[in-house]
């Protein structure tokens, strides 16, 4: 697909971006590898951390401009765009301040002698990222790798080239050396060739199962490590003893956040039968009355989907769910007129033989399930090919904690919707992927955890 900026609010094409050439790719690989081989990657970490601090300052200084660009390019609400800009600066600061501690040698008690683990960079990384958090996804892979000393080659989604370009510009402005970060407008085939290149040591990918599988296969074929952050079908569990006002507010927010195009937002609402009717009535009313308008307007609660393909695909998915027996309780259609807007939608009666039961709906579509007890909650939550995150609402924290431990996902949140912070690991199990980003775990994914041992007998 050609790299282009098309405003999802109006549907208007604003700008196209030419693809990089094979010569550009070679230059990027050469610069990255040369940097890795230079003293930069092995030198004391502090100069790299100072660049991350400066990057946070550059982001803060450009925050209004950055937020507007995201809204224009992929249609999220201006308030969400501001939050995204805020968190990328926080991630840069987090790794600037914590990486030295994370990468410090770790002593091991061993009968064989004095032993410790050192952390060394591995080399040049290939990363492939999606459009739904166009800066945040890049920062999740840039900051830890930069701190660790790994140069990165990035292929961003083709619908957010402006965000991709501006991120690269800011990394340079912050003082990162040539080769530390390369943004390439390239095809999937070229990504595959880059992964095969001897100068690349690993691949990190966030996106759909199809793309993740292609990248994982190519990395495995060349015996390179990969991490995958794929989709989810997260449960949002409301127990009979939940604070319903709070659960309702969180549920509507979480299902409509980024127009429902978030990997960890509430997708399957699992309601205890004692509160199911009350919750569904109130949830339906709240979903039916959200303000659907221009995402630049501060009062808007639901903006457009990211592209016409996304809106058309979602409409087909809903129709297919209904054809297989689901009940369309609310919405279900694209909104006529300019832009790629979609009605807030609720599906009930989704049975296990309905394809929708196992699918991720990447848009404002909630599925409702009613359960009788905690065991049924676990059976339903874990009857999923995905395993990304989930949320449980209950006033009984011990009961919620017991359920959280039994849910097969990379994260569970109690009495709040699933969210993100620099210090919290992010990632899934099952077909939601493998490996972790952010936190102390994320920075260890692509470092050599090297054992050194001095023999007792020496
Ligand atoms: P996508 O189609 O997989 O696109 C993601 C990235 O992969 C884009 O840069 C895309 O490039 C590229 N790509 C697509 N096919 C490829 C291939 N065969 N080889 C190499 N690169 C390829 O995903 P999406 O539909 O845009 O994103 C939504 C999905 O991402 C959802 O499933 C969502 O849950 C998931 N997601 C997961 C997380 C997480 O952290 N777990 C976070 C955000 C999103 P083009 O744009 O050029 O096609």
UniProtKB/TrEMBL annotation:
Record-linked InterPro entries: Ald_DH/histidinol_DH, Ald_DH_C, Ald_DH_CS_CYS, Ald_DH_CS_GLU, Ald_DH_N, Aldehyde_DH_dom, ALDH_GabD1-like, GABD/Sad-like
Keyword Secreted recorded: no
Pfam families, per database record: Aldedh
Statement: the UniProt record of this protein carries the keyword NADP: yes
Keyword line: NADP, Oxidoreductase
Catalytic residue list: 229
Top-level division of the source organism's lineage: Bacteria
GO MF annotation terms: aldehyde dehydrogenase [NAD(P)+] activity; succinate-semialdehyde dehydrogenase (NAD+) activity
Gene3D superfamilies: Aldehyde Dehydrogenase, Chain A, domain 1, Aldehyde Dehydrogenase, Chain A, domain 2
Domain (Aldehyde dehydrogenase): residue spans on this chain: 3-452
Family membership noted in the UniProt record: Belongs to the aldehyde dehydrogenase family.
Stated name of the protein: NAD-dependent succinate-semialdehyde dehydrogenase
Origin organism lineage: Bacteria, Pseudomonadati, Pseudomonadota, Gammaproteobacteria, Lysobacterales
């Amino acid at each position: 697909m050609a790299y282009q900026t098309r405003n999802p609010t109006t549907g208007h094409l604003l700008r196209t971006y030419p693809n990089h050439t094979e010569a550009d790719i070679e230059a990027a690989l050469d610069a990255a590898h040369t940097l890795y081989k230079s003293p930069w990657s092995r030198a004391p970490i502090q100069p790299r951390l100072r660049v991350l601090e400066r990057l946070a300052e550059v982001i803060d200084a450009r925050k209004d401009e950055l937020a507007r660009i995201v809204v224009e390019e992929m249609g999220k609400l201006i308030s969400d765009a501001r939050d995204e800009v805020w968190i990328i600066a926080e991630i840069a600061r987090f790794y600037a301040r914590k990486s030295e501690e994370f990468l410090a040698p770790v002593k091991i008690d061993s009968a064989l002698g004095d032993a410790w683990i050192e952390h060394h960079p591995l080399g040049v990384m290939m990363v492939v990222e999606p459009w739904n958090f166009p800066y945040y996804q890049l920062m999740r892979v840039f900051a830890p790798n930069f701190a660790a000393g790994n140069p990165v080659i990035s292929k961003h989604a083709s619908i957010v080239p402006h965000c991709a370009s501006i991120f690269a510009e800011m990394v340079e402005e912050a003082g990162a050396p040539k080769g530390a970060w390369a943004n390439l407008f390239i095809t999937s085939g070229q990504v595959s060739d880059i992964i095969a290149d001897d100068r690349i040591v690993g691949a990190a990918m966030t996106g759909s199962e199809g793309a993740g599988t292609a990248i994982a296969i190519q990395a495995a074929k060349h015996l390179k490590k990969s991490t995958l952050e794929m989709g989810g079908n997260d449960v949002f569990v409301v127990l009979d003893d939940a604070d319903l006002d709070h659960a309702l507010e969180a549920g509507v927010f979480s299902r409509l956040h980024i127009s429902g195009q978030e990997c960890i937002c509430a997708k399957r609402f699992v309601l205890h039968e004692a509160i199911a009717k009350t919750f569904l009535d109130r949830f339906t009313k709240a979903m039916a009355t959200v303000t659907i308008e221009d995402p630049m307007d501060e009062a808007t609660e639901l903006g457009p989907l990211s592209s016409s393909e996304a809106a058309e695909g979602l409409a087909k998915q809903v129709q297919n769910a209904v054809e297989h027996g689901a009940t369309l309780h609310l919405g279900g259609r694209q909104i006529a007129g300019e832009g790629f807007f979609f009605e807030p939608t609720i599906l009930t009666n989704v049975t296990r033989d309905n394809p929708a039961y196992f699918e991720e709906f990447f848009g404002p579509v909630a599925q409702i399930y009613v359960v009788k007890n905690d065991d049924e909650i676990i059976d339903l939550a874990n009857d999923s090919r995905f395993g990304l995150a989930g949320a449980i609402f209950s006033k009984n924290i011990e009961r919620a904690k017991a359920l959280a431990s039994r849910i097969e996902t990379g994260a569970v949140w109690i009495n709040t919707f699933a969210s993100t912070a620099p210090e919290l690991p992010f990632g899934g199990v099952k077909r939601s992927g493998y490996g972790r980003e952010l936190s102390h775990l994320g920075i260890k994914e692509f470092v050599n955890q090297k054992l050194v041992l001095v023999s007792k007998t020496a």
